[in-house]
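lol ok so funny story. i was supposed to be doing the assay writeup but got distracted and ended up predicting the structure for this chain instead. priorities right. anyway since i did it might as well share w the group, maybe its usefull for someone
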Amino acid sequence: MGQRLTANFTLAELTKTRHDLDNTPSLQIVQNLQLLAEKVLQPLRDAVGPVNVTSGYRSKLVNQAVNGARNSDHLYGYAADLQSPDGNHRKLYDWLKSNAMFTQLIYPAAMGARQLQPQRP
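and the output, tada:
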């Protein structure tokens, strides 16, 4: 799953999990992740610098393991939890709020995670 989605984001990065569970996305979900990377994540990175994706796509089993919402957009490849490597998470939030279309933008969230759920295509 080393497929490059954009200049700075790979499929592996958007599907990684710390749980020993299958997290292989369907073709449709890969297409959703591609749009997420192209329309939101890459423009964000181009504007503010490096961005860490702490959670992207989650299979049902992974979502259950992390106590995710039953109908989380992570299940469909429409959401990403983000952090700034320099700890300045506010710059991510400010840029996203001004420049990205989303259905939910959470800041701050528990334990430093920032969640972005772009508007579905």
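Helices lie at 11-15, 27-48, 60-65, 89-99. Strands lie at 52-55, 80-83, 102-106, 114-118.
back to the writeup now i swear
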